[in-house]
Design a protein that fits this description.
It contains 17 helices and 6 strands. With 454 residues, it is mainly α.
């Protein structure tokens, strides 16, 4: 009598249990997941990347296309969120627990510092942008390939958006914005900015640094979800947008992202690779902040490519940081802030700017949502593994999360990148829940061959 064990659908590499999927492993054809692409996430991706000139102004509220989309979809998102959260066996990430307290705090902080009306007009829009984008991605149906289909669509859209950057160099002006201004008659100042004698392209984005940021994210995402020729076409498009923006922080972040992908590829049998790397990096950061008399000066001088911008960012942290320390709980609100006459109003750090608007608590909660989305692992002990495409996507999203956290000290994310912070976090939290929902390895179908023959 022979004993046969027939598992259900298994996707486990027993030869190297600590290995992550190889970059050259088959992750499914490019068009295989298009039929699985959810409509709402796809519409949000397109709306976020469209030019800023396409907006409506109702009172003091600017209704951009993604905001209109999220407002219309809000009842559906609310129903999906409640249904998902009350589903038996729902596996929440840390970000799921933090997203609603963050939304409440963002509104409360502005209401305390500037009044209820300012919170309704300004803070509610920022909450809708970030939390709404998170929920759109978090509530994707648990269908095989849906998350990968969304990520591939997003990577392709980012590549196209990045490719609009070189057009500015070709025409010697902000071509997309110039067309938008001609259609809307906004009469904005569209004189090109230059750095080191090179024009800083914008494409369809609000600022050159935003074009550089989405190009950086697109390059990492494309390497994670595409294979073969489509991968390199998308990466080349993203790199074209990255360098056309002439923005040092996204360029450095992209190099770091490529290095992390290379590190992952070279250590397939080292399951604790990210823990070891995180402990090493955290130890170095701890030493810098405890031993160096001016840790931020050290970071800006050694981890930015332009000494002039590093000096300016340091001044911003010193001046604006003192305002935050004077109002640590609720911040100073959304409007202009006290500074020297020669200083512009821009604050080149999303973490510092968030602390100014919503207090240190609000800034910390944003970080908890972004980083906490990675709290659930992609591999759960005792459960079947996610398909290779989902695993590769999860690694790419983890690297993008790190880059957002890193860039956040020298870059302020607003506009399209503010939406994308929520979108990437929601998509990674979705993958973590998907991994926890995989069938248990104990659920095996045991049969006896002799019994079948009887």
């Amino acid at each position: 009598m022979s004993f046969v064990v027939e598992p259900r659908v298994m996707n486990v590499d027993l030869t190297s249990p600590g290995a992550l999927p190889d970059d050259d492993a088959e992750a499914g054809p490019l068009n295989a997941g298009l039929a699985k692409l959810p409509l709402l996430p796809a519409l949000l991706v397109v709306a976020v990347l469209l030019p800023e000139e396409l907006y409506l102004q109702v009172g003091g509220l600017f209704l951009t296309l993604p905001r209109v989309l999220l407002l219309v979809a809000f009842p559906l998102l609310l129903v999906r969120t409640i249904r998902q959260a009350t589903r038996p066996g729902f596996h929440a990430s840390i970000s799921d627990y933090a997203i609603f307290p963050l939304s409440i705090w963002m509104f409360l902080a502005v209401a305390v510092s500037q009044g209820f009306t300012r919170a309704m007009v300004g803070s509610s829009a920022l909450i809708l942008d970030f939390a709404g984008s998170y929920l759109v991605m978090r509530t994707i149906a648990n269908e095989p390939g849906a998350a990968v289909a969304v990520a591939r669509f997003m990577a392709g859209a980012l590549a196209v958006a990045a490719l609009l950057g070189p057009l500015d160099h070709l025409f010697g002006q902000y071509a997309i914005h110039r067309i938008g201004d001609m259609l809307t008659h906004l009469g904005r100042d569209l004189d090109p900015e230059f750095r080191h004698g090179l024009m800083r392209a914008r494409g369809a984005q609000e600022h050159s640094i935003l074009l550089g940021s989405i190009s950086s994210f697109g390059a990492i995402l494309s390497l994670s979800v595409f294979r073969g020729v489509p991968r390199w076409i998308a990466v080349i498009c993203c790199l074209a947008g990255l360098f056309s923006a002439v923005s040092s922080a996204p360029i450095l972040a992209t190099l770091m992202g490529f290095g992390l992908l290379f590190f992952r590829r070279q250590t397939p049998h080292f399951p604790s690779r990210w823990l070891a790397l995180g402990v090493t990096g955290g130890s170095v950061a701890l030493l810098v902040f405890t031993l160096h008399p001016s840790p931020f000066a050290f970071i800006f001088q050694h981890f930015t490519l332009d000494p002039q911008t590093s000096w300016y960012r340091l001044v911003i942290w010193q001046v604006a940081g003192s305002l935050v320390l004077a109002n640590p709980l609720f911040g100073i609100g959304l409007d202009d802030w006290a500074r020297e006459a020669w200083m512009p109003s821009t604050v080149d750090s999303v973490w510092l700017r968030s602390a100014m608007m919503f207090g240190i608590v609000g800034s910390a909660l944003i970080a908890v949502v972004v980083i906490g989305a990675c709290s659930r692992p992609l591999r759960v002990s005792g459960r079947e593994e996610l398909p290779l495409a989902e695993q590769s996507l999860g690694v790419g999203l983890g690297i993008i999360t790190f880059l957002i956290a890193y860039l956040g000290f020298t870059v302020h994310f607003w506009g399209c990148t503010w939406f994308m912070m929520g979108m990437f976090a929601g998509l990674r939290a979705h993958l973590g829940g998907l991994a926890a929902d995989q069938p248990s390895l104990d659920d095996l179908d045991f049969t006896f061959a002799d019994d079948e023959d009887a």
